[in-house]
Write a structure and sequence with these properties.
Rossmann fold; 9 strands; globular; UPRTase/APRTase; cytoplasm; adenine phosphoribosyltransferase activity
Amino acid sequence: MTPDRLKELVRTVPDFPARGVQFRDITTLINHGEGFAATVAMLSDTVEGSKAARIVGMEARGFIFGAAVAARLSLPFVPIRKPGKLPIDALGVDYALEYGTDRLELDPGAFEEGERVAIVDDLIATGGTALAAAQLLRQAEVEPVCAAFVIDLPDLGGAARLREADVPVSAIMSFPGD
C-alpha cells in the first residue's frame, strides 16, 4: 500500500473536538488489516534505519503503533504514561497544552544508559507531547534517535519543533492546513 492509499483510510471528522477543527481519526486505518499492517511496516522501516535499541510510545495511541513496531522488529517497548499510572517512582515532565498543562511519566529503570531510543506515535500536531517524551528520555540518560509518526499536521509546527530539539522526524502522511 502506498502512503496516499493509507491516507484515504484516515477518517476526517469536521468540528471535533471543537468548531473549525478537522479531526484525523486513525481508528478507520487501524480497522483495515492490510492498511494497519502496511503502516506498521513503514514505521518499522524508519525505526530500523535509526538503529534504535528500544521503542517508546505515548499513551494512548502511541501504545498501538509503538508496540506493533517493537514486536515487528523484536525490540523492547516502553510505555510513556499519563500521571499516576506507574506503580514506582517515575521520571516525570510537565508540558504546556493550548489551555493548561499535562504530565508524562516514565520508568527510569527501563533503559540502559546511553541507549538509542525511537519515539513512535500516531500523530504530531503542536509537538508538546513528543517534546515532553524526548525530554523524559534525556532525563533517563538515553538518546532519542528518531520520532516516527503516522500523521503530521505540518501547519501546527510540531515536527519542526522536534527537529529543533535535535530529534529526527518522519511521518507517513501529512494533512496540511490543519
